[in-house]
Every structure is written in C-alpha cells, then in structure tokens.
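User: Fold this; tokens only.

Assistant: Input:
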Amino acid sequence: MSGIVGQNLGRGSGLVKVTAVVADSVTGSEIADDAIDSEHYTDGSIDNAHIADDAIDSEHYAAASIDNAHLADDAVDSDELAAGSVDTAHIADNQVTLAKMAGGTDGNIISYDASGDPVAISTGSDGQVLTSTGAGSPPAFEAISGGGIENATIINMTANLTLSAGNNLLTANLAAYGADGYSTLGDAVTVSSGVYTFPQTGYWMITAVAVIYSDSSAVVDQEISIQTTTDNSTYDGAAFSFTTQTTTGDYNLMYTHFILDVTNTTNCKAKVYVYSDGTNTVRGESGILTTYTTFVRLAAT
C-alpha cells in the first residue's frame, strides 16, 4: 500500500490494522459504497461547495431535521419550491401588499361573482354610483335613481302660426326657449318636423300649452293634444284638452300633459296637435312663453 507509514499489520480474523495513514492519501475508490455516515462528519463540515446541484431530495432528510439555523439567509428561492407548495396556511396575515397584486384597469373594483371567485367590476361613467344588482351577480355602476330631476327642456313657438280647419300637427316656428334666464337642464329634447325625440330613457312628463283664437265668427271648438308612439311608427292620442270659442278674436288657453315611459329613444317619441272647427291662429312669441311644450325627466325607467 502506498501511502501507509509504519505498517503494523495484524493477521487475526483476516483484518489488516493500519497504524498510520499519510494525510490526503485515501481516495474515493478506496472507500466502500455507503460506508460513511453522519457520525463520521465533523460538525459544520459539509457546506454548499460540497453539495452537487439538485443532489439532495427530501428522502435524505430526517423528519424535521433541517431548521432555520441550518439554512443560509436568502438561500432558498422559487426554483426549490414545488409547484403549489405555498398554501394559505404558510402565508402570514397582512403580508400580501398591493405591489404583489396583478395589474388591472383604472377605476375597476374587485368583487366576487356567483361562484365566489374574484371579479373586476368595470369602471362606470362620471356621476354613476355602485349599486347592488341582486343576489347571484356582482354590483355595477349605474345612474342615480330618484336623485332629483336631471333633464328639462322647453320648446317654444317663436311666432304666430295660422292653421286651417281640422287637426294640425305643430311643425313650424319651434325652437328651444332662450330668454329670461332659461337654460336647458341636462341633455335636451329635440324637435324636427313636429316630432320630439328624447335624449335618454326614463319617465318623461310632457306638458303642451297653446294660446289660440279663431278667425271665424261662428262658435268653434278648439283642442290641443299629445300623441305618442312606442314603435316609431304608429301614433296614438295620449292626452288632450279642449275649449269652445264663442266670440271672434277671443284668445283661449289650452293645456294638457302626459307621462311617457321612454324605454327606447329610437322608438318612443311624441307630437303636439292643435284642432279647430275653422281657420285659427296659434299665438307664438320669441321672448315670452305663449304656445310651448315642456319635457321633464322624472326618473329612470
């Protein structure tokens, strides 16, 4: 044996007794497999430099044998963690910060869906509020219901209009009022060829007013009416008011009103008619309200 000094070999029982071994002279080939266990390691003698990458698995750990004292600071990273191994029980309370959450859309709010899973509520519009949509669905941003009147429009007849006998649709000299400090509230109702179009759905109060006189000396009946449609085609009489003129040139005031549930701004519209037995004049002025129609949105539909 090279490397053995002061050979003192016993022959009993087939054993060879080595009195001394030269330092660093025993190689791996001269050590039997599985011959050295932890009793023969000096405490702290095995460091990272002497452990091959991915060489030690959990089968070689005694139960609960590796504690914090035997782990170097910042030594274990995500590569050493089994997929899904970090569960709720191993995350301390209040440890997940906003910076660790996935990015989202500005204005979204996190809630839960019918399955109990997190869901992002889409950002609403300016002025909307977060409201409940009932059990089984997340809340949503919606317009405030019953929070006060938000839309009001006055359409005025700006000049006199002479009409023949019969039922006449008011189509001429109509414009949004613009005097005496008036201002349209919210989105305005518009008129074209006598057809009034609403800017949004909801319950709308329509009030039609007319000042009228007949050029005939005979007794004549006069009427104002509101007609509405919900299919943008067939108009029905919704409300009317009438009077009887007995003296030529006398002015008569008529008005009527109706609440229309505008469920669709394309299909739900209104018209105003004036009826007289004979030729008549409907009074109109630009600087004061005489014949006009008002529209006030009372609430959401």
